[in-house]
Amino acid sequence: MEGMSGYLKQAWLIAKFDMGTALRTRRALAAVLLYTLVALATGAILVFIDMKLGRQFQTIRAATDLASHAGDKVPSLDEVLSFFLHGDKEMARHLLDLPLVVAGFFWVTLTFLPYLVALVSFDIVNSEVRNRSARFVLLRCPRTVLLAGKMLSHGTLFLAVTVISNVALFAYAWSELPGFPIARAGLLLFEYWLITIVFGFCYLSLAALVSSLIDSGGLSLVVLFIVLVAMGTLSMNNTIGFLSPSYFKLGLWSPRLMDVAQNLLAFAGFGCVFLGLAWVRLHRRDL
């Protein structure tokens, strides 16, 4: 227990120093602020759309549902949306019932968070290798602790920005939308934030893997962006799409808890594989 406690203390010390360095260089701070501004701007747009079109949307949905149930050849919005969800009408109804602000904000997170991770964490490992600071750190702690500290540092940064964005969005929507479902929206935002933790871990581990394989910071950033685009493209293949974590992104929207859990396990599994490979590379290389 004392050995584990000592490792955790060392990892936290490395994390605190790394966070301080990132904030002093302002690169990480700039990227985080950019993401926050994009997320909040998107939230503001969604609030505006909800204010202007929310009631009309519900009216149109009710009318199409009524016409569809009456036997008219008019597909309901549930049926139209389920066409793009492989015929899953339950998920279609779930998505249409979500508060627009919450659904739009979660979509922004799933779409742009991997690229924020790439911008901030592309040199999570190789920065220590390039400037030779890893040699001095490893005189006091093992390589496992170094990697754990770096992951803890960057993970804390992403948790902070997602918490700030969620709270700010919730407060803005609450103040601007008269009929905003406070309790339900708050619960949904909290659930999606928990999902984001596992989702972000997967891509942070991917950044650690690429950074451990490539010493050049600029090249690792380019390669990481290429890998993210390639993963997104691969996920659209019905045969081998499961080889990409992006393939499991749609399942995170499911109203069925078991489906969400299974897809989260997939992201956690990919993250553990990426991080494990980064650990192997770090242990085998000469620093």
Walkthrough of the structure:
The protein has 287 residues and is mainly α. It has one domain (2-52, 96-284). The protein has eleven helices and no strands. The protein has helices spanning 2-25, 27-69, 77-83, 89-97, 100-121, 126-130, 133-137, 143-176, 182-213, 217-234, 257-284. It starts with a helix and ends with a helix. The model has no long low-confidence stretch (mean pLDDT 80).
Rounded mean pLDDT is 80
Helical content, roughly?
over 70%
Q: What is the total number of structural domains?
A: 1
Secondary-structure element string: HHHHHHHHHHH
Structural class: mainly alpha
- Low-pLDDT segments, ≥5 res: none
SSE blueprint:
Elements: H1 2-25, H2 27-69, H3 77-83, H4 89-97, H5 100-121, H6 126-130, H7 133-137, H8 143-176, H9 182-213, H10 217-234, H11 257-284
Briefly summarize what is shown:
The chain contains eleven helices and no strands.
Q: What structural keywords apply?
A:
mainly alpha, globular, about 290 residues
